[in-house]
Amino acid sequence: NSRVFSLIQPTGKFHIGNYLGAIQSWKTLSETESPGTQYIFGIADLHAITTGVKPAGELRSNRHEAMAGILSCGLNPKKCILFHQSSVPEHAELHWYLTCLTSMGALNRMTQWKSKARQLGDDESDQLKFLEHTKAGLLCYPILQAADILIYRSTHVPVGDDQSQHLEMCRSVAINFNNSYKTNFFPIPQTLLTPSKKILSLRNPLKKMSKSDPDQSSCIYITDAPEVIAKKIRKATTDSVQGPVYFDPEARPGVSNLINILSGVTSQSIEQVVEDLAYVKDHKQFKDHVTDVLVTEFKQQRELFEELMKDGVYLEKVCHEGRDKAREIATKNIEEVRKLIGMD
Ligand code: ATP
Ligand code: MG
Question: What is the residue range of the signal peptide feature (predicted)?
Answer without folding.
Answer: none
